[in-house]
Design a protein that fits this description.
Length: 408
């Protein structure tokens, strides 16, 4: 961050509406804000007042790794935001600062290590293979959102959590309601409360290893941490909520990836012909695709801080845009181009700093399996409708295709 403070007038407050964009179109409002400068001011559809928006790659990484910016303080303020409701519950890890944030993440860390994720890989591969075989047996056309992109990440995150199969449809419904702005505050809040009550009940039950909820599952780890006095029961519920709803982000991200490949057939053909470049291609797709609408979670300055030459005062809210950082031309030459040979590719698709996505390795593993399945099991994969008829989620906090009708 530039510590040289300018005396220029404050930038104007720009209204950022909740746009329902088609495909992987880059948000035109964000593009305009990026052109206006590395730090601007925004007002989102809900909450009070305005907030700073930081878009330059180096500044985004600095803010997210700076203890002078607090997530916990956001809970006490009605910060301008996209969602009509406040998604996290009190004490949730996403709204804690170190050292409490570190303590909470430590409770579930074993599930997200390389060993923890690899423990799930073979089970995930089998789950996906079963789903793919069902689709192939039924034949084309098929909606891959309904048949693969929805059920597979849900099954994997529930396996990780220790949620029994019978309860997984409810988890999916609650997640969609929590992450939507179209059903109203009350319905979204009720879904959040229902999911919290479910996890509170699950955590209170004796665990015997059945239904996948053994000591290595997230529920098992949380139960042990509560029993050992490392975290409270309410903190365990908040952690479970965020991990569960975050796990289904793979549905939208991989849906966006498949949309990109089907609309860039030359890239799809190359990945079929050169399997060795797929891990690098997934990194580039993660950099390129829109992961969300507008911005995610804010921070509040604990003290006066200078960012990009602008003085942010104590108590003022700040957003960073990882989408903008991933299009910073100083870091990513020709950022609008999809380049599977891009190297290095230090994208921040999973965030940065203490709040770096705890499930990043799990999401990569799922993405690798899904992309392999699309490329290797569905020769001739293509849209079954004109591309302009592909429906994308409306009023959603997380961007992605509502359906992907394909044939092969």
């Amino acid at each position: 961050m530039d510590e040289t403070t300018t005396t220029a007038a404050l930038p104007p407050v720009r209204h950022w509406p909740a746009l329902d964009l088609f495909g992987v179109e880059f948000d035109p409002v964000l593009a305009e804000l990026m052109r206006e400068g590395p730090i601007t001011r925004i007002k989102l559809p809900n909450g009070d007042g305005w907030a700073w928006l930081v878009t330059r790659y180096d500044d985004v990484r600095s803010v997210t790794n700076d203890p002078r910016f607090s997530r916990k303080l956001v809970v006490e303020n009605d910060v301008t935001r996209l969602a009509p409701h406040f998604v996290p519950v009190d004490g949730a890890v996403g709204f804690e600062d170190p050292p409490d944030h570190t303590r909470l993440r430590r409770a579930v860390a074993p599930a997200f290590t390389t060993r923890g994720v690899e423990r799930l890989r073979e089970r995930a591969r089998l789950l996906l293979a079963e789903l793919v075989e069902e689709v192939l047996a039924d034949g084309p056309p098929a909606d891959l959102t309904e048949r693969l992109l929805g059920p597979f990440p849900l099954a994997v995150v529930c396996e990780l959590m220790g949620v029994p199969p019978i309860d997984r449809p409810r988890m999916h419904e609650w997640t969609n309601l929590i992450l939507s702005s179209t059903h109203g505050v009350e319905r979204s809040q009720r879904a959040k409360e229902d999911m919290c009550a479910y996890f509170a009940d699950l955590l209170s039950q004796p665990r015997d290893g059945d239904a996948g909820d053994d000591e290595e599952s997230v529920i098992g780890l949380l139960g042990t941490a509560v029993a050992n006095g490392e975290i409270t029961a309410s903190e365990a519920v908040g952690l479970a909520l965020l991990i569960q709803i975050g796990g289904e982000a793979v549905t939208n991200n991989c849906g966006n990836m498949l949309f990109v490949l089907l609309t860039h057939p030359e890239h799809l053909a190359r990945l079929r012909a050169e399997p060795a470049i797929r891990p690098r291609a997934i990194d580039e797709l993660l950099r390129y695709i829109p992961h969300r609408s507008a911005v995610g979670l804010s921070r509040i300055a604990r003290e006066d801080v200078t960012v990009a030459g602008v003085r942010i005062r104590a108590g003022e809210p700040v957003y960073v845009s990882y989408l903008a950082a991933n299009r910073d031309p100083d870091v990513f030459p020709a950022p609008e181009s999809l380049d599977f040979d891009r190297s290095p590719n230090p994208h921040v698709a999973f965030g940065y700093g203490p709040h770096f996505c705890v499930g990043a390795m799990l999401a990569r593993m799922e993405s690798e399996l899904l992309v392999d399945a699309f490329l290797d099991r569905f020769p001739g994969l293509r849209f079954a409708v004109p591309v302009e008829e592909v429906r994308f989620r409306r009023g959603a906090l997380i961007r992605g295709p509502e359906s992907l009708p394909v044939t092969w």
